[in-house]
Structure formats: structure tokens, C-alpha cells
Write a structure and sequence with these properties.
The complex is a heterodimer of chains A (544) and B (142). Chain A has 544 residues and is α+β, with helices and mostly antiparallel strands. Chain A has helices spanning 6-27, 33-41, 65-78, 101-109, 143-152, 226-240, 251-258, 260-274, 283-290, 311-320, 348-361, 384-393, 424-433, 437-443, 502-519, 526-533, 536-543; strands at 45-47, 52-56, 62-63, 82-85, 91-96, 127-128, 168-171, 185-191, 197-203, 215-222, 321-323, 329-334, 345-347, 366-368, 374-380, 408-409, 448-451, 465-472, 475-482, 494-495. Chain A is built from 17 helices and 20 strands. In chain A, helix 15 (502-519) packs across helix 17. Chain A starts with 5 loop residues before the first helix and ends with a helix. Chain B has helices at 21-26, 65-75, 93-98, 112-120, 136-141, and strands spanning 6-7, 19-20, 32-35, 53-58, 81-86, 103-106. In chain B, strands 1-6-5-4-3-2 form a six-stranded mixed β-sheet. Chain B starts with 5 loop residues before the first strand and ends with a helix. Chain B is α/β, with parallel strands linked by helices. Chain B has one domain (2-141). Classes of the chains: A alpha+beta (544), B alpha/beta (142). Chain A binds chain B through residues 5, 7-8, 10-11, 14, 17-18, 21-22, 25, 30-31, 35, 38-39, 121, 151-152, 154-163, 227, 235, 238-239, 243, 273, 277-279, 281-282, 284-285, 288, and chain B through 37-38, 40, 61-65, 67-69, 71-72, 75, 89, 91-92, 94-96, 98-99, 111, 114, 117-118, 121-129, 136-137, 139-141.
């Protein structure tokens, strides 16, 4: 993985001192809370219901064991012994004191980590495929470009007071594991007819109260011009976005209001100008970064066979591992979705155990997925049993990847000032209803996503089954959506009808799955059946 | 008034008061203009040679349109005084400098010691902007 040189370290160290100074000036009354707020948000510090939340960047979802142990140390020392991995592959802590924040940032800087631009109206941490560098289907490892873009967009002087947040995602596979087109700017590495690498570009995606799937705005941007292109997109948006209504300031609204043809025309005109300025990073810089991402020294001649004598282990192998590009290796998915737990939460002790396993069995490499699970990307098949046993002992060997209990839920009203309804208890009730593993496997791939308000942090628009919590005359009410997708077949879920109370929504989900089991044809996932038969049979079962 | 303006230029302050963009586009002899957030700085590009002062207003410090306006003007070759006015706060001035502002007329006084520390804090930057700072990729590769 990428390692800081003296320049990266100096920049992050200066940032720690800058924030220490800003926090001191705030505490001394030299600036107002209104003036301080964007500064702390740019350091990931967000005021929630009970305390400050600190969101730490995990660039493109990649960690080493030293970093994960530091995250455990922070959980123990400054929080309540656990952390929460987010849908943008970051980690956040929910019980932080403002006066501790500068020290936490200083500790992070010792392991080449930071909280820069993890909140606020800035270019956020770039997200990427959690299987990068391991996936059997990728055309290249997207992380060198992700790191280049990370540097190019860190402390960008023109684009640090944007109309709203700006999220970038990057993948290099036909399979989309990163909810690509739900981002403001979505980049997919492709090759042109000459075999050169470049970017297919989509713009204007986003969830929230006005969901849009990003439009394709360029089929091929030469790889070395991507920074000019990103700056062109940002300049058009920064110059022309509305600034009068916070709900209308995301780039998706501008793309929609102008029309994507006109938006694209303005971007192209600005891009032509940007190319004349010489701001793109040279090939040599890409190559310097890429050298950090050379594949680990995979052994050859390893056995492919896995001893499946233990049925529990075989079940885990079948569900939680994925094809690796190197023979004899597998990608291991570590579930953070224990039934009855809080999705994405992990204790400090569990972090240490995953760090140990990564060091011993996965070339010191750990990934975070947008579905809030962890990944050990490079495990020898002959080591799978040992890894499984260690995970099992730590309460991390649940079998539910992409199954009905692998639910994405936002923190909701239990933590968040914006929420209208609780999310976590709904996720827990659904998981308990479907806890039986045979039933989960029978239902197959089924992605449930739950948000506690229309800001959609729980990705409800992109759930095969989505749930949106709203406030209805002072009581929590849950709307059901069907047919969304955050994968390569991206689609927007549709609301079925009137909402339900807390128990009613769990029943509605169950009735929905009953229709699927009744109607499905050979090999169909829930989503396939829904798309074939439409919403009516589901509505009949739910409301009939 | 003039003593409240923080300048990073060696020439004498321009005496003529800035006129609005509409007024400037209507009268051929003005040499100082003020653009409000949301006004298109590209309208000034045909007239840059005769401008000595362009003032860019920040109605709220979180309104970042002025950063793009500054760069658009500098990238078009403007070398005169470029002044950020309005809700200009010390913690935003480093990025304003990097975008080409060399003069500041803040609504509230700026603590000069804090400003000096803020502008000197970062030894390195990641990207080329409209100032003389050399990006780290250039330092890495000579």
C-alpha cells in the first residue's frame, strides 16, 4: 500500500497543528461557532445528539495492521471501546470530546492517517472497490489512481468551500462493488481501442431527498488528464450551483437543472482550458505511486483444494470468500453484521484480532467495504480454515455476505441530530426475524438498506428492499421501497405505498420475501424477480 | 479605509473606487470593478488590460464562488490587484492567496500574528494553483 514520504507527512503534521490552533482559538472565544464549524467539519468533527462524532479517512478503504491497531487504540483511549465503519469506507467514533480531537489527530498522523475532508462542503475521501488488487475481474488496480486523486484533491485551494459535499468513487471492474453511480463523480477505469487506460466518467449521482443516478458524461478521459477533468467538473459546479437552499446545492441538482448535455458542454469547454494550465500530475508521479501497489509476492504452486469436512466452515467458505486473481488465494469477507448487533460496529479487541490475521495471512492488508464489512484480500486457500477459526473465536465468522441480514443502516435517531426515526433497532428486528441461516440462504442475495431520514445515509434508494424512516405526526413511520440497486445494474427503488410502524415494517419485509419465494423462476435473485413481475404482486401481499 | 486593507503588493494602492460590473461594462474608462458572488468573471476578460483593481465580494465566508472567480481572472492573464472583500476570515486566506488574491478588505479586523502563522504553516502543497507554490510532485521529480 501507499506510504507517506516526507512531503505527505509534513502536510498531515501541519494539519494537526493547524487544527490544534483553530480549536484553541475557538475555545478562547476568538471565533464564533459558525466560523469554527466548517473548520472542524473539514477535520471530520461533527456534533451529534450526545457528543462529537469524529470520522477518520480510510483512503479508498485500504488499511494496514498498524493502522487498524491505532484505530483500536483510539476506540479504547478516547471513545467507548468500539468504532463504526461507514458506507464510505471510513471509520467514525461517536463519543468524542472536542478537547481530545487535536491529540487524536496527532496520534493518527503517526500511522499516516488523518481526518481531512471527511465531512463538510469539501471533496470527500475517495471510495473504491474493496477487492482492488485482488479481484479476478479487474483490468488493473484502481488504487494508484485513487491515491493520485487523493493528493490532487487534498487542500485544493479553489474547491474547499464548495456548495455542498462532493463524493468520488473509482472502480476498475465490470462488477460494481462501490455503489459507483450513486456518487457525485463516478470513475471507472477502462481501456480504449489502442489499449490505453483511461476513465469512463459519470456525474451528478447522489441519494438524499432528490436521488439521481449519475449520468455518463464522457466515455473516455485519458488517464493522465483526469485531474484537469475533475477540476473542470468542480469549477462548473462551484461557479454555477445554487447557494440559496442547502437542499438544492449538490451537483446532481445542477446537472439536472442544466440538463446533462449542457452540463457536459460546459465541462468540456472548461476542460479544454484546464489542459492548458499544466496542473496534471506527470506520468512519473503516477508511476511513483503505482510502485507502492505492486502485487504482493504471491506464492505459486499452492493447492486449490479446501478441506470441507467441517460443514460450518464449508458454509462460511462458500458465502464469505470470493475469487482471487492469484491461483491458490481467496478474498475473505469478514462480516460485521452479527444478528442482534449494530452493523459496521467493531470492538477494539476485534480490530486487534483482524490486524493480527492480516499481518499473518493477508500480506498486512485490510479493506473496508461500503456495505460496512471488512475484507482480508489475499488469503491462501490452505490458510482459510485457520483464519475462519480465529474469526469465529472473535465473533467475526458470521455467514451473511449480501444476504438478508447483511443490512446497511444509518446511525439514525439513536445518534444523529438529523434523523426522524431510529434505524438500528429496525435492522436488528429484521435480522432477528430472518436469523435462520437456511432461510437466509434460501432467499439468496437480498440487500436491505435502511435510512432514518431522507438524507439517505443508509442508502435506502439503492436497496433491493429499502426502508425510509420518517416522522409522521410525532411517531416513527417506515416506508418500504423495492427494486433499488447499488451494483452495476444501478436502479432507484420505488415506494410501495403507505408506511408502517416498527413491527409493521418487519412484517412487510417478510411478506415481500414470501412473494419472491412464490414467484421466482430458476436462478432469479429477488431483484430479478421484482424487475420481471413488477411491484403489483408485492403490493397485493403487503396491503391486500 | 485604506489602512484596513491588507495588501501583498509592492505598488501603490489604487485610488479609484470600484464600480459595479454592470456600471463597468457600460462605461469604458473605469479602471476598478467589483464583482458580486454569482456574477460571471469571464465578462471581464476582454477588458483586463485596462483594469488596475478587481474586487471580489464574499457575502458569506462559506460561499466559495470567489475562489473560482479569482483563478479564472488570473488564468486569463490579469496581473492587477485582486481583492477579496466582505466576510473574509483569517482561516480562509491561505487558499485565497493560492487562488490569486493579493489584497484583502475584510469586514472585521484580522489579527496579523494569526494571519502570518496561518500563511506560513504549510511548507508543501499538493497541486499547482495561481500562486508561486511548487507542488510536491514537482519536488519529487525535479
Amino acid at each position: 500500500m501507499y506510504r507517506y514520504d516526507q512531503y505527505d507527512q509534513a502536510i498531515v503534521d501541519a494539519r494537526v497543528e493547524e487544527f490544534r490552533d483553530q480549536a484553541a482559538r475557538r475555545l478562547a472565544g476568538q471565533m464564533t461557532e459558525d466560523q469554527f464549524k466548517p473548520l472542524r467539519l473539514k477535520n471530520g468533527l461533527y456534533l451529534q445528539l450526545h457528543a462529537y462524532m469524529l470520522r477518520i479517512a480510510i483512503p479508498y478503504g485500504t488499511l494496514n495492521s498498524r493502522q487498524l491497531r491505532m484505530l483500536g487504540h483510539i476506540a479504547r483511549t478516547y471513545d467507548r471501546g468500539y468504532g463504526h465503519f461507514t458506507t464510505r469506507q471510513n471509520i467514525q467514533y461517536h463519543w468524542i470530546k472536542l478537547q481530545d480531537a487535536p491529540d487524536i489527530l496527532a496520534e493518527l498522523a503517526t500511522v499516516e492517517m488523518h481526518a481531512i475532508q471527511t465531512s463538510g462542503e469539501s471533496i470527500r475521501n475517495i471510495s473504491a472497490d474493496q477487492y482492488a488488487g485482488a479481484a479476478a475481474d479487474e483490468i488493473c488496480d484502481p488504487r494508484p489512481w485513487a491515491e493520485l486523486i487523493r493528493q490532487a484533491t487534498t487542500f485544493h485551494p479553489e474547491f474547499s468551500y464548495l456548495p455542498r459535499k462532493f463524493k468520488i468513487a473509482l472502480i476498475a471492474s465490470p462488477t460494481d462493488r462501490a455503489a459507483l453511480r450513486w456518487h457525485d463523480l463516478a470513475l471507472r477505469i477502462v481501456r480504449n481501442e489502442a489499449g490505453e487506460e483511461g476513465f469512463e466518467v459519470f456525474a451528478g449521482g447522489g441519494m438524499g431527498r432528490t436521488p439521481f443516478i449519475a449520468y455518463p458524461i464522457r466515455a473516455f478521459c485519458p488517464a493522465e488528464q483526469i485531474f484537469s477533468y475533475i477540476q473542470a467538473v468542480l469549477r462548473v459546479w462551484n461557479s454555477h450551483a445554487r447557494r440559496d437552499n442547502i437542499h438544492k446545492q449538490r451537483m446532481k441538482i445542477l446537472v439536472h437543472d442544466l440538463g446533462h448535455e449542457e452540463f457536459t458542454r460546459q465541462v468540456e469547454e472548461t476542460f479544454a482550458h484546464m489542459l492548458t494550465l499544466g496542473t496534471d500530475f506527470p506520468r512519473a508521479e503516477y508511476e511513483r505511486i503505482a510502485a507502492y501497489f505492486t502485487p504482493p509476492p504471491f506464492e505459486t504452486g499452492l493447492p486449490e483444494e479446501i478441506d470441507r469436512a467441517d460443514p460450518e466452515f464449508a458454509l462460511w467458505v462458500d458465502r464469505q470468500t470470493a475469487a482471487h486473481k492469484a491461483p491458490g488465494y481467496a478474498i475473505v469477507n469478514v462480516s460485521l453484521k452479527r444478528v442482534g448487533g449494530i452493523g459496521g460496529d467493531i470492538t477494539a479487541d476485534q480490530m486487534d484480532i483482524v490486524a493480527d490475521l492480516a499481518e499473518r495471512y493477508s500480506f498486512d492488508d485490510i479493506r473496508v467495504s461500503h456495505a460496512q464489512n471488512l475484507v482480508l484480500p489475499h488469503v491462501r486457500k490452505q490458510d482459510l480454515h485457520a483464519v475462519w477459526q480465529a474469526l469465529d473465536a472473535a465473533g467475526l465468522a458470521d455467514v451473511n455476505l449480501d444476504l438478508v441480514t447483511d443490512i446497511i443502516a444509518c446511525p439514525g435517531l439513536d445518534y444523529c441530530t438529523l434523523a426522524n426515526a431510529r434505524s438500528i433497532p429496525i435492522a436488528q428486528k429484521i435480522a432477528q426475524r430472518f436469523a435462520d441461516i437456511d432461510r437466509q440462504l434460501e432467499l439468496g442475495e437480498l440487500k436491505i438498506k435502511i435510512s432514518g431520514c431522507i438524507n439517505a445515509c443508509g442508502h435506502h434508494h439503492a436497496g433491493h428492499i429499502g426502508i425510509l424512516g420518517v416522522d409522521r405526526k410525532g411517531t416513527e413511520n417506515y416506508q418500504l421501497l423495492l427494486g433499488g440497486s447499488g451494483a452495476e445494474d444501478t436502479s432507484l427503488g420505488k415506494i410501495t405505498g403507505p408506511g408502517f410502524d416498527e413491527d409493521g415494517i418487519v412484517d412487510a419485509v417478510e411478506k415481500t420475501t414470501d412473494v419472491y419465494l412464490r414467484e421466482r423462476q430458476d436462478g432469479e435473485r429477488f431483484l430479478d424477480t421484482y424487475r420481471r413481475i413488477g411491484v403489483e404482486p408485492f403490493k397485493e401481499a403487503i396491503y391486500g | 479605509m485604506a489602512e484596513d486593507i491588507i495588501r501583498f503588493r509592492d505598488d501603490e494602492p489604487h485610488e479609484e473606487p470600484a464600480v459595479s460590473l454592470d456600471a463597468f461594462l457600460d462605461q469604458s474608462d473605469a479602471t476598478a470593478v467589483r464583482i458580486e458572488a454569482g456574477e460571471d468573471p469571464q465578462q471581464l476578460i476582454p477588458h483586463l488590460a485596462r483594469l488596475a483593481l478587481i474586487e471580489v465580494d464574499f457575502p458569506r465566508f462559506r460561499d466559495g464562488r470567489g475562489y473560482s472567480s479569482a483563478r479564472i481572472l488570473r488564468e486569463a492573464g490579469y496581473t492587477g490587484e485582486l481583492r477579496a472583500s466582505g466576510d473574509v476570515l483569517v482561516d480562509q486566506m491561505l487558499f485565497m492567496r493560492r487562488c490569486g488574491f493579493d489584497s484583502f478588505a475584510p469586514d472585521a479586523p484580522i489579527d496579523r500574528a494569526v494571519l502570518d502563522a496561518t500563511l506560513a504553516r504549510y511548507d508543501y502543497v499538493y497541486q499547482t494553483a495561481t500562486d508561486a507554490a511548487v507542488p510536491v510532485w514537482k519536488l519529487r521529480h525535479g
